[in-house]
Amino acid sequence: TLAVSGLMMIIGGQSESSARFLSGMDIGLFVGVMIGSIWGVVRVFEPSVYIAPVFGGALGFVFTVIYHVLEEKFVAPSDHSLMVIATIGTCGGAFFGFFSDRFREYLEER
């Protein structure tokens, strides 16, 4: 909804800043890059079902720490600590790593 309202402001030619549009877009871009990277690593290295979540968790940790540091430096202080953000990123990365491996196995069997 935030991205749609920002897009409508840009299309409508209103003079309001596009900061609202960009603030909704940055998290989507981040999540897309993280999921795509995990999928790429799982497809290239073909790890076992026990190692794929480790790869995903490591990538999720790295991406969320980098995102948090950049947000703190360039945007505004975060509402959560680095430990909370890193934990969420690690768990999400492990989740996507596991399901990326399952999806890769499914595609190979077809």
- Overall geometry comes to elongated
Give the beta-strand count: 0
| Overall average residue pLDDT | 82
Task: Count up the helices.
Answer: 4
Oligomer: single chain
Percentage of residues in helical conformation: over 70%
- What class, by secondary structure content? mainly alpha
N-to-C SSE string, H for helix and E for strand: HHHH
Distance between the termini: 37 Å
Using only CA atoms, what is the Rg? Answer: 17 Å
Strand content: under 5%
Runs in which pLDDT lies below 50 for 5 or more consecutive residues are none
> Mind summarizing the main beta sheet?
none
What does this structure look like?
By secondary structure, the chain is mainly alpha-helical. Helices cover 81% and strands 0% of the residues. The protein contains four helices and no strands. It is elongated, with a radius of gyration of 17 Å.
